[in-house]
Amino acid sequence: MAVGLIIGGASLALGAAYLLLIQWVIRQWHKLPVFEPAPIEPAPSVTILVAARNEAANIRHCLQALSQQNYPELSLQIVVIDDHSTDATAEMVEAFPHPNLTLLRLPAGQYGKKRALELGAAATQSTYLLTTDADCQPPPLWVQEQVQHLESAALAASTGPVLLTGTDSLRYRFQALDMAGMMVLTAVGLHTGTWILGNGASLAYRRAAFEAAGGYADNRGTASGDDIFLIAKITRGQGLPVRFLKSATVAVPTPAAPDWAAFLRQRLRWGTKNAAAPASAGTTLALGIAFLLSWSILLSPLLFLAVGHFWLVFLALLLLLKARADYGLLKTACQFFHQEHLLKSFARSEVLHIGYIAFIGLASLFVRKYQWKDRYVK
């Protein structure tokens, strides 16, 4: 009995720590001012880098969105780097009518997003480099606000909000809620220096910072992580900070995973990336609390062996602590990004989230190879 109570008490302490952590995140988010754009004259030169592999279904829509950016045409270049596509991606880029669009192809023996971005960066001389994904459609003010953010705040790099699109379903709403919450966590982590997060679908940085960091020279062997690895290197090596662009206007839409299998592969890739990236004490603490709390909830029925049906009290309290924390975070995110409709699936998504954090977190510690873009990579 005593051992069971001690274990249950420790689990409740984890739940309380999680609640306090999330409440701190919410307070820090509200302290961050919403970005107020300010005109920049003359407009500095910008190159948008898009690494693409087998994106024939998406690349035209992406290029259409990039061609409609509210930024001086003479100062904006779009470079698509084809990563040995086996479909019509390259041909569609070549046929797209834009005067400042360039197609590059990765040479034989080189592959992957990092190699592609390095090739694109080396082929241009612009002041700023922006990256997005071939299945994204950045809104018209995306380039303008990212550049204004870099200039006005004297930043080395800026990562912006990314939100999911998809047909209305539990699978979509679960993914969209998770992504919206991640945007708040990203902003707070970078602002406070507690942890490093980012998303390559909306990332901007000074060319000088990219070159000073050596690009991806020391982590090309890891297929993913073109965002977090680079942000970490720039943060360590530059006198200028890296911040989150808090603006709902320029949230970049990207499709949710089309099915549960694709979602799990995607999140396993992200988890593997996070496990391989340099971890701060804040990152380890935050991930550890969430991971252990999820497993505490899943394993709580074992307390029946020590405390009988009293284990249900522990389970109820653990679920209450986690749900209160998560609802506060997700409500904050959804209100800012005008996605309040997603909250109707909060209860079901919360149940899924517990298993997702527990099992993906565990798998990411051991899995080193995964399937991505029709390749097995590590």
From TrEMBL:
Segments traversing the membrane: 6-26, 275-297, 303-321, 351-368
Organism domain of life: Bacteria
GO terms, molecular function: glycosyltransferase activity
Keywords: Cell membrane, Glycosyltransferase, Membrane, Transferase, Transmembrane, Transmembrane helix
Cross-referenced InterPro entries: Glyco_trans_2-like, Nucleotide-diphossugar_trans
GO CC annotations, alphabetized: plasma membrane
Annotated localization: Cell membrane
Domain Glycosyltransferase 2-like: 47-174
Pfam families for the chain: Glycos_transf_2 (PF00535)
Record-given protein name: Glycosyltransferase 2-like domain-containing protein
Organism of origin: Phaeodactylibacter xiamenensis
